[in-house]
Design brief:
This protein is α+β, with helices and mostly antiparallel strands. The protein has one domain (about 5-90). The protein is built from 3 helices and 3 strands; from the N terminus they run H-E-E-H-E-H. The chain is elongated and about 50 Å long.
């Protein structure tokens, strides 16, 4: 048919191109040796210098950062691979 509805259905199936709004970045979390986790976007999770050595910053997938505001994430779980995040970023995969 090639009409407006077909174009909209194609956009919804593929997703939108977000590359002018977001960039793909590694997603990381603080993890303590006992499995406790914390976000890297706040205060340090340790409460003393002695406890600092129990924490490591580790990768947990891929997310996006808003280019203008610097906000990290879009309220969804991280993508497992950089390619999956890039597919979403460029509209090659639905949300």
């Amino acid at each position: 048919m090639g009409g407006w509805g077909d174009k909209m259905n194609d956009q919804l199936t593929r997703g939108l191109d977000h590359s002018k709004t977001f960039e793909v970045i590694p997603s990381r979390r603080w993890r303590r040796d006992d499995g406790l986790t914390a976000s890297p976007y706040g205060a340090a999770p340790w409460t003393s210098d002695a406890e600092r050595d129990r924490w490591t910053l580790e990768p947990v997938g891929w997310t996006v950062r808003h280019l203008k505001t610097g906000t990290v994430g879009i309220g969804r779980q991280t993508w497992p691979t950089e390619q999956a995040a890039l597919d979403w970023l460029h509209g090659r995969a639905p949300f």
